[in-house]
Design brief:
The protein is of the alpha+beta class. Helices cover 37% and strands 29% of the residues. A five-stranded mixed sheet has the order 1-5-4-3-2. The longest helix has 17 residues.
Amino acid sequence: MEIVVVWSDNAIEELRSIYDYLYFNVSKKVADKFSNAIVDKTILLEQTPRVGQKEEMLAHLNKEIRYLIEGNYKIVYWIDEDIISIATVFDCRMNPKKLKRKNT
């Protein structure tokens, strides 16, 4: 069974915001490196989808929601059969309660 990783519109927008912030406030090189590291981390899910820890803040959604960490960011995803959906890229420096309000 082949596993497919798909990104939600929300996750794409979050990644773009991170990239833009780093591009304009740090450098293009850092923005490229960091955004590529986030994407590369999600590619690992094709081989080991349950590598991330369960996201307890979202347990009430009754989905298998997990996360990976890259730098200060939590890559939140859920598993549905052979599809892994990247729900959001959440800045861990924010109030954790805001994660519940994200579109997951």
